[in-house]
Amino acid sequence: MTGRSQEAAKPSRAPAVTRRAVLDAATRLVEQQGVAGLSMRKLAAELGVAVTSIYWHVGNREALLDELVQEMVHGLETLPAHGTTPTARVLSLAVELRRVLRDHPHLIGLVNERGLTPAMFLPSQLALVAEISAAGLRGARAAEAVRALQYHVIGFILVERHTDRSPEQHPSAEELWQAEPAPDAALAGALATPVDADRLFAVATEALVRSLLADQPLLADQ
To answer: How far apart are alpha carbons 107 and 37 in whole angstroms?
Structure first.
């Protein structure tokens, strides 16, 4: 048998796969198809390996889901704060928190199902506490500011998701405002245009942050 024939006769080696590759592929499947769409067979097919290779790296499906939950929890530990002013730094944290939560809706749901939502939000709370404390807020007022920002971010995301999942509306808000006589034509015209969610979030969050960091008592203190 020639050298070339011997090479052809050798069994092909199974492609190597790492634990990191398994977790990344599982995350993609969950984000694309939801938790119900994640199976070990689909995951193996995605990676081009045998199912046994998946089990060797991460265990069974429940163990894999636990790993994904921990990945999501730890993923919020590195939220960056940018800017040279307290307002800019707190705002940057809120923007980044919205991005992470919006980009991983199925994983957020999985974390909630596992009863680990407080643990998931703790890192972002700690980051906000650090920046709000640096801005001079202390005690109950600082706690109110942290919670107000978290509720604001989460509430905004819920409205976005509801809007995305809703059936097409007839008449639409844009059509209603186009037909509505208004003393302020510019205002009516602006409300008749589609919402720029990123800009709206930035404007609303900056206003909230400036109010929370202002040297004035909160409503609860009045």
So the answer is: 13
The secondary structure element, H or E, covering residue 31 is helix 19-33
Phi, psi of 184 (to 5 degrees): -110, 95
201 contacts 152 by C-beta, under 8 angstroms? no
Radius of gyration of the chain, Cα coordinates, nearest whole angstrom: 24
- Is the preceding omega at residue 123 within 30 degrees of 0, hence cis? no
Length of the chain: 222
Euclidean distance between CA atoms 28 and 14, whole angstroms = 22
Question: Rounded to 5, what percent of the chain is helix, strand, coil?
Answer: 75, 0, 25
**pLDDT digits 0-9 by tens, 145-193:** 999 999 999 999 999 988 877 788 778 877 887 777 777 888 888 888 8
pTM of the model: 0.76
Residue burial 66-98, b: 16+ Cβ < 10 Å; e: rest? bbbbbbbbeebeebebeeeebbebbbbbbbbbb
